[in-house]
Amino acid sequence: MLNVNHPWHGAHFGEEAPVVVTGLIEIPQGSRSKYEVDKETGLLKLDRVIYSSFHYPANYGFIPQTLGHDGDPLDILVLCSQSIQSLCLVEAKVIGNMQMIDNGELDDKIIAVAAKDPSVNHYNDIDELPQHFLLELRNFFEQYKVLEQKKVEIDNFQDKATAHTIINDAIAYYKEYFKK
Question: For binding Mg(2+) 2, which residues are annotated in this chain's numbering (predicted)?
Fold first, then answer.
């Protein structure tokens, strides 16, 4: 039986998914600490401090009631003019996806903007983001595990239609995997 008080299972992916989703933030933008919601308890735990001098370039978390190819909830990067506190739910407009390969395993990162932040909510597609920001994202995710002797590759950035398909698939996979 699923624990409805657990952030992964108790929060909802959002009524307007896959266009606008609910993101649950684990790691605030600018942090070097990698926090994760514990799968057993639902509490926030410190997974590790990043081994390098990198900081998360965006607020990072997951979309509740989704299941990705890696067996975890679907990851989301939420662009916002502010750092968002851990365990905060945020309405996020999906604009694309960053397809990552982490130790040989597909690990999609949905890219979204905070729907209620006028500094970023005018972005509607990943192609509208400054090219330099996409280079920073790529650089962060390709390099942040190097000192741990782990290899991460960014396959490519994908448009919002592809991101919507990935989200719908992750919602369907979650429903199938966690049949009630």
Answer: 75
Closest to 62 (Cα-Cα) out of 90, 85, 81, 41:
90
Measure the CA angle with vertex 131, ends 130 and 133; round to 5°: 70
- Does the pTM exceed 0.85? yes
In degrees and rounded to multiples of 5, residue 146 shows phi and psi of -55, -45
Tell me the C-alpha to C-alpha distance, in Å, between residue 1 and each of 4, 5, 116. Answer: 9, 12, 34
Q: Are 167 and 66 in contact (CB under 8 A)?
A: yes
Binding-site residue positions? 34, 48, 60, 70, 75, 107, 144
**Residue list, annotated binding site for substrate:** 34, 48, 60, 144
Q: What is the pLDDT of residues 37-83, one digit of tens each?
A: 999 999 999 999 998 888 999 999 999 999 998 899 999 999 999 99
Quote the distance between the C-alpha of residue 145 and its chain's center: 17
* Annotated binding-site residue numbers for Mg(2+): 70, 75, 107
- Which of 114, 138, 122, 145 lies closest to 47, judged by CA? 145
Tokens of 70: 């890696």
